[in-house]
Amino acid sequence: MDVFDWLTCWYQAQCDGDWEHSYGVRIDTLDNPGWTLTVDLSGTDCDGRTLDRIQHNYEHPTDWWTCWTEDNSFRGAGGPLHLRSLLETFRTFATDISRKDSPTLEPFQKLP
Predict the structure, then answer these.
(1) How far is CA 67 from CA 50, 78, 87, 110, in A?
(2) What is residue 111's predicted lDDT score, i.e. its pLDDT?
(3) Angstrom distance (rounded) from CA 71 to CA 60
(4) Residue-wise pLDDT tens digits, 23-66
(5) Are 80 and 70 contacting, i.e. CB atoms less than 8 angstroms apart?
(6) pLDDT score recorded for residue 100
(7) Which of 22, 66, 67, 74 has its CA 20 to 30 A from that of 29?
């Protein structure tokens, strides 16, 4: 399933009459340029899960992305061509049921 279709299904599955009033998914732009992704994890199957910061090509001016969890939210930021990379990383994070904390995100590289 395409990651955009998957995200809409994941979002719909969270909406229970309450969750969507306080939490949600936010996609925004950066001025350097690029994208940000924030997904509230409270009240979802991912509630309390953590992800150490991972990154790709971080020193490149436009071909970069990074993802992590903070304050019970999944967060991602990336260059203008990496919105799909952020969403794919979130999908991997959200669907990795083999580990409750720090899911395996191969082939992504975790930072030391």
Answers:
(1) 11, 9, 10, 10
(2) 39
(3) 27
(4) 999 999 999 899 999 999 999 999 999 999 999 998 898 999 99
(5) no
(6) 52
(7) 22
pLDDT tens-digit series, residues 63-93: 999 999 999 999 999 999 999 999 999 999 9
What's the CA gap between 7 and 21, in Å, rounded? 18
Strand runs labelled E in 17-92: 25-30, 34-40, 54-56, 65-70, 73-78
Spell out the residues 6+ positions from residue 34 whose beta carbon is closer than 8 angstroms to its own.
62, 64, 77, 78, 79, 80, 82
Running DSSP on this structure, what letter comes out for residue 61?
Answer: S
pLDDT for 97: 63
The first and second tokens of residue 110, run together, are: 């975790």
d(CA 84, CA 43): 24
CB-based contact 76:66 (threshold 8 Å)? yes
Residues 9-44: b if buried by 16+ CB within 10 A, e if exposed: ebeeebeeeebeeebebeeeeeeeebbebbbbbeeb
Picking from 108, 77, 109, the residue whose alpha carbon sits closest to that of residue 92 is 108
